[in-house]
Amino acid sequence: METMFERLRRLRSSDTIRRMVRETQLSVNDLIYPVFVVEGENIKEEVPSMPGVYHFSLDRLDEEIEAVRSLHIPAIIVFGVPRHKDALGSEAYAEQGIVQRAIRQVKEQAPDLVVIADTCLCQYTDHGHCGIVEDGQVKNDPSLELLVKTAVSQARAGADVIAPSNMMDGFVYAIRHGLDEAGYEHVPIMSYAVKYASAFYGPFRDAAHSAPQFGDRKTYQMDPANRLEALREAQADIEQGADMLMVKPAMAYMDVIRELKDRFPYPLAAYNVSGEYAMIKAAAQNGWINEQEVVLELLTGLKRAGADLILTYFAKDVAKWLGGKHNASF
């Protein structure tokens, strides 16, 4: 009997065949692992809303870096929680700031590990906003000066990549100019080009102690309803000197990831943020889902959408699931 339909199942008949024809590969090389460093001694404290994610004091940081290295995760992004906060976020650009000290320590321990520095002020300001506040308003241009000082101090400490996350207009141009002028023209910028004013950031603000003390961040982070604005933001950052782009959050914005990848021939990162992580962890702990299967499916989906790199708190788990090998993939 002549068949009139295509037998697509033929290429699904065994695990080996499925792997051979798989269109999207998730690899340990795609992963960037967020690390939180804090002041103090002998601190390894779990973030209550993020099971498996810890605050590390510098004297305990080496053990976490060794775990990352042993799993062949190629990069970390460092977030700092300072002891002192003020209106200008001065600890963000202090030579002995918590992030600067952490960067130097990591680069001494693991020179080949790529260290990305998150460049923002919100963890360091007493008001919790990502710039200078005057009369209840976050001021754009004066904030750029402090962001440049922060980026240069991070590069001086040894950061391999600067990742500005503040969403001030002109921040990439200002930081690129500042890095070049300081002799760090070789340091790339991974811009948080498309960062939405999202409800998915709650657990991170718990981890970084960065919740705004008044109002919200909707005057500088993007409206979650907007797609075309994301293209303008990305285009502006490219024109200002960004080397890589990022979309944050990831799960609810796969359409934006896909569109940016189709339009701009630049490496693209997706940030699988704290709220996304916490939801999966909570569901898994209640036995409602298979954590490993869900996480691998989600991150593969981000790759399929167009992400080249994925910042995720699941990075260590994923590396273990993939076998902890340099070229392991799913």
UniProtKB/TrEMBL annotation:
GO terms for cellular component: cytosol. The active site is at residues 195, 248. 5-aminolevulinate 1 binds at residues 205, 217. Its EC number is 4.2.1.24. InterPro entries: ALAD (IPR001731), ALAD_AS (IPR030656), Aldolase_TIM (IPR013785). Pfam families: ALAD. It catalyses: 2 5-aminolevulinate = porphobilinogen + 2 H2O + H(+). SUPFAM superfamilies: Aldolase. GO terms for molecular function: porphobilinogen synthase activity; zinc ion binding. Zn(2+) binds at residues 120, 122, 130. PROSITE patterns: D_ALA_DEHYDRATASE. Belongs to the ALAD family. This is Delta-aminolevulinic acid dehydratase. It comes from Caldalkalibacillus thermarum (strain TA2.A1).
